[in-house]
Amino acid sequence: MTTWSKRRSLLQKHLPGKVLLGAASLAYGAGVAGRKLLYDLKILPRRTLDAKVVCIGNLTTGGTGKTPAVLLAAETLRRRGHEVSIVSRGYGRAVRKKDVAVLIDGRQTDWHLCGDEPWMIHQSLQGLGIPVLVCPDRAKAGALAVEMYGSRVIILDDGFQHRKVHRDLDVVLVNARDPFGGGSLLPLGNLREPISALKRADMVIITHADRVTAVELEDIRARIETIRPGLNILESVHRPDHLLDVRTEINRPLSHLKGKAVVALSGLGDPLSFEATLEELGATLAQTWRYPDHHAYSERELKSIEDLRGGLPLVTTFKDFVRLPACWRKVLTGEILVLGIKLDILRGREHWIDTLDALAKSAEPVS
Q1: Region label for 331, one of left (φ > 0), alpha (ψ between -120 and 50) or beta (otherwise)
Q2: Closest Cα partner for 145 from 162, 133, 155?
Q3: pTM score of the predicted model
Q4: 347 to each of 116, 155, 351, how far by Cα in Å?
Q5: In terms of C-beta density within 10 A (0-12 exposed, 13-18 middle, 19 or more buried), how is residue 205 classed?
Q6: Contact at 8 Å (CB) between 336 and 232?
Q7: Which superfamily, per CATH, for 52-238+344-363?
Q8: What is the per-residue pLDDT across 262-294, written as a single tens digit (0 to 9) for each?
Q9: For residue range 138-192, what is the model confidence (pLDDT) as tens digits?
Q10: What are the two backbone dihedrals, phi and then psi, of residue 252, each rounded to the nearest 5 degrees?
């Protein structure tokens, strides 16, 4: 459980705490509603880029599997010959200026300068020639992608609430394990926006569909359908893709974990899914270390883990690995494994491919 989740749980145990969270949630909701109204009335301007824009986002905080969805969209478009770039704000970036950091094949960049998720996206797309541009001003980054790299499609990473940029396709991810954030806005619940915001969506992908029953899945679909009748609702699962031994830089088969006792380390919005995946691969979780989402690990924390892990293999995610301090090789001994995950669309795959392909083709100049 993350630090904030622990604090909220403590507050919810007492009436004053509940009242405080409820009041803060009401204030947050008023701000969200006011901002929506300003955009709906066109008082706040939206910028249109000279490219088609695909937004991958969600309604809740953390844990929906957004990064694998961004990777899948980029790969789907690139493998069909379309010029595509990814634009991200760069959460956790050390440099918060309005300059644009560009990650592209052949250029090395410290993750602190661009944020952990953009760096991970770039590493996962190596060899495909897909630029990743990072800037809080995503309209500026998108315009640069068009000008410098000839991108015909821009993928907005985590952009559903970022309405400054006009988008041509809004894809919203819904985590089957916690589809509607407890039904309340932050900080009482985990909703960034009211559920009614799904009216803006063009497509919904239910992620972690294999983590709930068929009845629960149909209930989620029905709830979405009542909000946005006729909306295309896809279903997906997260599958382990590869296992990297970062000390030797050798890819191990997923069967490498079978029958092994391991230590799991993660700083994720939904650590349970990661841990469940390790168990499904045959690993026994001797210890689990959970930190807040986007946590930057310290040398002291690594030393504590090293002292307690008893020489067992440590398994983490790409997102977490990039946030280990530079001294990790000296502090951590033995086997350090990184599990790569991919998004696999089980229901609606052809619609996903056809929609992205058609959108990209409509962006091509007429000869």
Answers
A1: alpha
A2: 133
A3: 0.88
A4: 30, 22, 9
A5: buried
A6: no
A7: P-loop containing nucleotide triphosphate hydrolases (3.40.50.300)
A8: 999 999 888 988 999 999 999 999 999 999 888
A9: 999 999 999 999 999 999 999 999 999 999 999 999 999 999 999 999 999 999 9
A10: -100, 150
Nearest to 60 by CA among 184, 220, 190: 190
Task: Name the token pair of 20.
Answer: 């405080």
- CATH number corresponding to 239-342: 3.40.50
Q: What gap in Å lies between CA 243 and CA 99, rounded to an integer?
A: 35
Do residues 273 and 242 touch, judged by C-beta distance below 8 A? Answer: no
Q: What is the pLDDT of residues 301-348, one digit of tens each?
A: 999 999 999 999 999 998 899 889 989 999 999 999 999 889 999 999
Sign of CA pseudo-dihedral 297, 301, 303, 308: negative
Q: Helix, strand or coil for residue 39? A: helix
In terms of Cβ atoms closer than 10 Å to its own Cβ (0-12, 13-18, 19+), residue 92 is: middle
